[in-house]
Amino acid sequence: MLTDTLSVAIAFITVILLLSVIVTALVQATQALLRLRARNLMKGLAELILKAREGTELADDKATAKKDASKILNAGSVALIDRVKDPTSFLHYWILGPKVSWLDPGQLPAAIAEQVEDLKEKVEDLKQDFEQAQQMMQKRFQRHIRGWTLLWAVVVAIAYQVSAPALLSRIQENPAVRARIEANAERTLAYAEQAREKLDYEGAAADALEELKQQYEAKGNQTVAERLEEASGVGVDRDFIVDELALVVEGLPEAGEIVEQYKQLLDEKARDRLRDLREVQQGAEAQLADYGITLWRQGASYYYDNQKSDIHWDRLFGVLVTAILLSLGAPFWFARLRDVIQLRDLLAPSATRSAAGGTPPTGETRADRAHPPSGEGEQGPG
Question: Which residues pair with 310 in a beta bridge?
Fold first, then answer.
């Protein structure tokens, strides 16, 4: 009985994890496209500028504060590369958004002195306020990401037409489908781990740093090679990661050349990883298709009966439940699937001994149990 319950849980979580990875990919793509972290930083800095200007003519001028924040983030002491000529232009201010997504409080004095005249005397106060506000800005960014996660979770649940209650019921009632999904659970774990590594630039940064270091060691330039070891390659996006390296190599005669080489290598490695990610996504789509879950497979009729002019409220409710589950994120479901598989494997020996009266069964392996005869349960679980 317990093993059956665990099998149901493994199969159900496997499907939810596959869908959650799709949601995570969409959220990260949205974050990168809209530069959400950079916009959040600019908004937080603008709020602090308004606070610093209390009692002045610009105390309530939010537009000017935002433009000044944009200028500060584009200052030479902050945006060491990829600076724009006019950061407050319509294109860079409203559409593309700021490039800098992270700011060291120590960079503020020079940036303010360079860009904003009336704040020079309040630099220290602004720096202190910025240090205190960083945690608040991080929490606000996390709220924004949760909002986008929920939005994409709803879209994915609707598009793939997965009702969590119906999925769970199908898995419980159809042992063949359940066994087929459970047999692929560990493969799904591996897929999710690969996807997590390839959804950002950090893995690519590690490869790029190592290759760059080897190039300068081959040239006999140990100074540059040792300096490159100080770079972490950690960051929320490409701009952040490159900015970090620019700070590390600042002052070296080859600094400009190093940064350009790094950017090129980083993009090459990222493209390789994106290509791998596409292959992983195709594998996930194949797994879902094997379980009867494909994009918009029943069309609008899944939600609306044209003949009876009736809305399928039960399916809409089920899809909403799915969206809520997906909004918990792929890391959550990855951990849950790993835990349940470990619990199953832990209980498997004792369950086998009990079923066989104390001796292991002969002529049957786990693989035999995991792959029942074909022909059963061809209908998908969704």
Answer: 305
Gap between the Cα atoms of 82 and 88, Å rounded:
15
Average pLDDT, the chain: 83
- E-assigned strands of 203-342? 304-305, 310-311
Q: What are phi and psi of 357, to 5 degrees?
A: 70, 30
pLDDT digits (tens, 9 = 90+) for 340-361: 999 999 887 665 545 545 444 4
Residues 239/36, Cβ–Cβ less than 8 Å: no
Give which of 219, 274, 276, 270 is closest to 242, Cα–Cα.
270
Tens of pLDDT, residue by residue over 166-205, are 999 999 999 999 999 999 999 898 888 877 766 556 567 7
Nearest in space to 326 (alpha carbons), one of 293, 363, 374, 304: 293
Token duo for residue 52: 């610093």
For residue 369, give both structure tokens: 């149990």
> Of the candidates 24, 33, 26, which has an alpha carbon nearest to the alpha carbon of residue 238?
33
Nearest one of 147, 103, 113 to 239, comparing CA atoms: 103
**Rounded Cα gap, residues 18 and 23, in angstroms:** 9
CA distances from 181 to 202, 236, 378 (A): 32, 34, 12
Q: Alpha-carbon distance 224 to 147, whole Å?
A: 43
- Contact of 233 with 202, CB cutoff 8 Å: yes
Distances (CA, A) of 338 to 87, 108, 199: 46, 44, 20
Q: For residue 305, what are the β-bridge partners? A: 310
H or E stretch covering 321: helix 313-326
